[in-house]
């Protein structure tokens, strides 16, 4: 992570006012769980300064955000972010790479001139660039742009002492905030929910679900892969817990599995085994199974209560000695 922090400091030192920028409007279409993207080139006038302030705010603060001081690796079980912390992921691990490739391949496309082409647009990408740097900044369009939906509300502005009507069919919303920004193969994330919503994370989790459950079977841990797949289904919380085992891989440690069985027996938890010592998992105990296989059940030091915690931070030896 030191290398990423160094990169962050480099990016925070850029004079963003010197970057050129180009706006792309993205439309998403999902068929059988597979998303495809269409990126529409646009011409902008008078928006450049706002965009440059927004990317500076993303990295350096002074607007909606606090400056980024800390970075953490993106994980499916990462909790909500602190104000001064961002997550780091890789562009090639999500659909974002497909959007960037679509933009790069369509860089010479003629800009959109018909307003109706923006109907049901899904996100905005601002490409910032010069000879040395290239950023792709993502902002989710809240609710999408629905140009065919009627409204019972009018839009007015108050200027020079009077109300004036704003033509609603030519008014679009921009949130003045970027959810995440790609630089090279790194993605800096300040809105985890929009990052996952925007980039088809659930589909990736479902693919990994089947691979990891098969690994459980290969290691002799569960009786039925089908039962576990059904129990987890498409539940995002359970998918996150399952996918997190890919990082710790405790399921490959036989000593860990034996310790887990002993703890289950001591507490009388509902986790039956068959004659071969394999866990019988269904919808009633799948949540407990995933917590235990990730070693996410603890005894609190002060209240001596048993707690579950999806996201934990190891206490350093120095911190530990200070508490003793």
Précis, in short:
The protein has 324 residues and is an alpha+beta fold.
| Low-pLDDT stretches | none
- The helicity comes to 25-40%
Oligomerization status of the protein chains: single chain
Question: What is the approximate shape?
Answer: elongated
User: Could you tell me the number of beta strands?
Assistant: 12
The N- and C-terminal alpha carbons lie at a distance of: 29 Å
Number of helices: 11
- Neighbour order of strands in the largest sheet: 2-1-5-6-9-10-4-3
Strand content: 15-25%
Any idea how many domains? 2
Structural class: alpha+beta
- Backbone CA Rg: 24 Å
The average pLDDT value, as a whole number, equals: 86
Biggest β-sheet description: 8 strands, mixed
How do the helices and strands follow one another from N- to C-terminus?
Answer: HEEHEEHEEEEEEHHHHHHHEEH
Label this structure with key terms:
elongated; 324 residues; two-stranded antiparallel ribbon; alpha+beta; 33% helix
Account of the 3D structure:
The protein is an alpha+beta fold and 324 residues long. It contains eleven helices and twelve strands. The strands form three sheets. Strands 2-1-5-6-9-10-4-3 form an eight-stranded mixed beta sheet. The chain has a two-stranded antiparallel ribbon with strand order 7-8. Helix 5 packs antiparallel against helix 6 and helix 5 (201-218) packs across helix 7 (236-243). The two termini are 29 Å apart.
What's the layout of helices and strands?
Layout: H1 2-12, E1 20-31, E2 34-41, H2 48-60, E3 70-73, E4 85-90, H3 96-105, E5 121-129, E6 134-145, E7 155-159, E8 162-166, E9 180-183, E10 186-189, H4 192-198, H5 201-218, H6 225-232, H7 236-243, H8 245-248, H9 254-267, H10 286-293, E11 297-299, E12 306-308, H11 317-323
Helix pairs in contact: 5-6, 5-7
């Amino acid at each position: 992570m030191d290398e990423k922090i160094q990169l962050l400091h480099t990016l925070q030192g850029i004079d963003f006012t010197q970057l050129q920028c180009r706006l792309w409007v993205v439309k998403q279409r999902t068929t059988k769980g597979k998303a495809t993207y269409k990126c529409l080139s646009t011409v902008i006038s008078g928006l450049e300064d706002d965009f440059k302030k927004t990317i500076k705010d993303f990295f350096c603060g002074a607007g909606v955000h606090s400056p980024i001081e800390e970075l953490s690796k993106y994980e499916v079980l990462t909790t909500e972010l602190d104000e001064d912390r961002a997550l780091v992921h890789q562009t090639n691990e999500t659909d974002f790479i497909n959007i960037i490739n679509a933009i790069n391949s369509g860089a010479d496309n003629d800009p959109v001139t018909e307003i109706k082409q923006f109907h049901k647009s899904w996100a905005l990408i601002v490409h910032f660039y010069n000879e040395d740097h290239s950023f792709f900044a993502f902002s989710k369009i809240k609710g999408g742009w629905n140009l065919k939906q009627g409204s019972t509300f009018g839009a007015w502005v108050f200027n020079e002492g009077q109300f004036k009507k704003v033509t609603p069919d030519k008014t679009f919303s921009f949130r003045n905030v970027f959810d995440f920004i790609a630089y090279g193969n790194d993605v800096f994330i300040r809105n985890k929910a929009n990052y996952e919503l925007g980039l088809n994370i659930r589909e990736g989790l479902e693919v990994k679900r089947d691979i990891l459950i098969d690994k459980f079977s290969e290691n002799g841990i569960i009786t039925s892969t089908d039962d576990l797949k059904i129990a987890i289904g498409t539940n995002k919380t359970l998918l996150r817990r399952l996918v997190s085992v890919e990082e710790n891989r405790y399921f490959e440690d036989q000593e860990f599995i034996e310790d887990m069985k002993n703890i289950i027996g001591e507490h009388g938890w509902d986790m039956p085994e068959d004659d071969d010592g394999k866990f019988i998992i269904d919808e009633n105990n799948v949540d407990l199974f995933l917590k235990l296989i990730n070693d996410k059940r603890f005894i609190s030091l002060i209240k001596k209560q048993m707690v579950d915690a999806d996201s934990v931070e190891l206490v350093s030896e120095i911190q530990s000695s200070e508490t003793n």
